[in-house]
């Protein structure tokens, strides 16, 4: 974890010349190097900063038998599962938020012979698993699950008597993905990553992972990061690769950069209900493009226009002070 | 009787919003709860702070979000936090007065199924699952449920307990406190069972009985739900949901 990403160090030359610390690479190279068949993969981001660009590259490279981890599988895992990359899903809430079902996932989980393995927790249970994984604890205790069937459905949700009294709480096991992929507004070439807006659980699942890919809207100089250290979510120390991919979270959003493409989420429902239309969409917008730039071009200028923020909302400057 | 000049969803939203009078911190859900909470903020609960599961507290959305995660809940909010903080400090820590839940099935004790229809391992219908519902149900001081009722949704035995209801016999803080349907408003008796307190205008007890599997408990002082006021309708139609995504198409006056 955190070692130099040797295969891609040359990418830094066009940035600031500090080849020794740069982890900048392309999406194609990052996925080829770090995501393997049968890996467990977490592409997190709670509605915000979901890295569709990475999910699509995993589809393009035809990975197989992945275990996919996310609180809310969202459209990205629906598309990846429709494309056949996964054998198992670890999750908390399965739906198209505000719209309805994830039909591709329903097709492989309903009926007498489901083909996708499910491992199901509540949202806090998922966050607890991430936290235990990140902090090296054998379990995470929480006051969820009492009076429900969730511990019956998932025997890894277990009751534990408090060592300090008569109370019983539930515990969930740690999770340590082979790879976590985090989308963010900006990072430096070493992977020091800053996020604003909804931060979800990306920090915890990044620290829990064996490898981390950071995908950013903008690459900035280290001095930009150092000028506002409170905003740093993930230190470069745990990052293996940095990919610069503007609009990489579409149809999810990047606060201050582009809006959630709600029209896409609504329109996906009709595509998703039909296996053939889903396959045709994947052919056109995933297999049929070389990467994110071509994907955005194919979506068209009106999409860029409709996800443009309607105005600016700048944070006021704050003074960290100088102490010499 | 002539058709009412409002939709069933407008009645449900108005009834739910009124129940929020005096509440301070409300955990907001997608869809009808979202509109109900924003209506309450403009009518009976001006001091209400909205908390969204995506991690925003004191949100002031400038538009109605399609999803619980949207950039408009961030801009201008009081605080944005990680989900570890949201679920740990705010929700499990006891700061949330009211949480909203939806349900595919509910029983008389308020046990809720939002996971599967049929057997868990081989379901006829795979529903979303808990998400944060399990935590909202256990840790909000009050739990409001908004749903349409029918013999398929108000059932004697739910297929899966996603979120806990009242223990039979009552005596616990667990379980929903208010259930608003398209027919009426329910609260809970001391024995933990759902009790019909008001019928919406135009609904009858026979309608209610035809839309649930168990024998309804009726409050001795059963009343009629006041219909949506002109101001409530104006806010819903002009401010909160001008595209009528959630309130439904206009009824003919």
Explained architecture:
- The complex is a heterodimer of chains A (324) and B (253).
- In chain A, α1 packs across α2 and α5 crosses α7.
- Chain A is 30% helix and 18% strand.
- In chain A, the strands form 2 sheets. In chain A, strands 1, 2, 3, 4, 5, 9, 10, 11, 12 and 13 form a 10-stranded mixed sheet that branches. In chain A, strands 6-8-7 form a 3-stranded antiparallel sheet, with helices on one face.
- Chain A is α/β, with parallel strands linked by helices.
- The N terminus of chain A is likely disordered.
- With 253 residues, chain B is α/β, with parallel strands linked by helices.
- Chain B has a single domain, classed as 3-Layer(aba) Sandwich (Glutaconate Coenzyme A-transferase), CATH 3.40.1080.
- Chain B contains 7 helices and 14 strands.
- In chain B, the strands form 3 sheets. Chain B has a 10-stranded mixed sheet, with helices on both faces. Chain B has a two-stranded antiparallel sheet with strand order 6-7. In chain B, strands 8-9 form a two-stranded antiparallel sheet.
- In chain B, α1 crosses α2 and α2 crosses α7.
- The longest helix of chain B is centred in the first third of the chain and has 11 residues.
- Chain B is globular, with a radius of gyration of 18 Å.
- In chain B, 55% of the residues are buried.
């Amino acid at each position: 974890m955190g070692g130099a990403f040797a295969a891609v160090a040359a990418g830094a030359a066009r940035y600031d010349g500090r080849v020794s610390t740069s982890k900048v690479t392309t999406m194609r190279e990052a996925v080829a190097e770090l995501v393997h068949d049968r890996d467990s993969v977490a592409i997190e981001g709670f509605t915000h900063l979901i890295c569709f660009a990475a999910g699509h590259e995993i589809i393009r490279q035809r990975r197989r038998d992945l275990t996919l981890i996310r609180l809310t599988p969202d459209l990205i895992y629906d598309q990846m599962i429709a494309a056949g990359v996964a054998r198992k899903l670890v999750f908390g809430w399965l739906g198209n938020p505000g719209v309805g079902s994830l039909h591709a996932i329903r097709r492989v989980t309903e009926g007498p012979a489901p083909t996708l393995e499910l491992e199901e927790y509540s949202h806090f249970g998922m966050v607890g698993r991430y936290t235990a994984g990140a902090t090296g604890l054998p379990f995470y205790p929480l006051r969820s699950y009492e009076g429900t069937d969730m511990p019956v459905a998932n025997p890894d949700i277990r009751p534990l008597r408090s060592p300090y009294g008569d109370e019983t709480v539930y515990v969930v096991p740690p999770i340590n993905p082979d790879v976590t992929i985090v989308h963010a507004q900006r990072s430096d070439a070493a992977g020091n990553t800053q996020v604003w807006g909804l931060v979800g659980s990306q920090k915890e699942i990044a620290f829990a992972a064996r490898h981390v890919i950071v995908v950013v809207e903008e690459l900035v100089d280290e001095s930009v990061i150092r000028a506002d250290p409170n905003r740093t979510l993930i230190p470069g120390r745990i990052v293996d690769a940095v990919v610069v991919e503007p609009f990489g979270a579409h149809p999810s959003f990047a606060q201050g950069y582009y809006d959630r493409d709600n029209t896409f989420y609504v329109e996906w429902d009709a595509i998703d209900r039909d296996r053939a239309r889903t396959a045709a969409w994947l052919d056109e917008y995933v297999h049929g493009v070389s990467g994110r730039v071509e994907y955005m071009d194919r979506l068209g200028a009106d999409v860029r226009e409709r996800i443009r923020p309607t105005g600016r909302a700048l944070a006021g400057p704050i003074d960290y002070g100088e102490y010499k | 009787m002539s058709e009412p000049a409002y939709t069933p969803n407008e009645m449900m939203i108005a009834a739910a919003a009124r129940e929020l009078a005096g509440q301070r911190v409300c955990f907001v859900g997608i869809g009808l709860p979202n509109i109900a909470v924003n209506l309450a903020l403009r009518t009976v609960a001006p001091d209400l702070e909205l908390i969204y599961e995506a991690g925003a507290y004191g949100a002031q959305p400038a538009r109605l979000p399609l999803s619980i995660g949207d950039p408009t809940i961030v801009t201008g909010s009081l605080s944005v936090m990680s989900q570890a903080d949201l679920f740990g400090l705010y929700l499990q820590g006891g700061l949330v007065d009211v949480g909203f839940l939806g349900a595919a099935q509910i029983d008389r004790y308020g046990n809720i199924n939002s996971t599967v229809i049929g057997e868990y391992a081989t379901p006829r219908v795979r529903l979303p699952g808990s998400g944060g519902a399990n935590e909202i149900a256990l840790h909000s001081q009050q739990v409001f449920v908004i749903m349409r009722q029918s013999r398929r949704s108000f059932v004697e035995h739910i297929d899966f307990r996603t979120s806990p209801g009242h223990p039979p016999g009552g005596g616990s803080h667990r379980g929903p406190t208010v259930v608003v349907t398209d027919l009426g408003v329910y609260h809970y008796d001391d024995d933990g069972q759902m009790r019909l307190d008001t019928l919406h205008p135009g609904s009858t007890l026979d309608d209610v009985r035809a839309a649930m599997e168990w024998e309804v408990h009726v409050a001795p002082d059963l009343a009629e739900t006041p219909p949506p006021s002109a101001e409530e309708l104006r806010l819903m139609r002009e401010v909160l949901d001008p595209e009528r995504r959630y309130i439904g198409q206009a009824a003919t006056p």
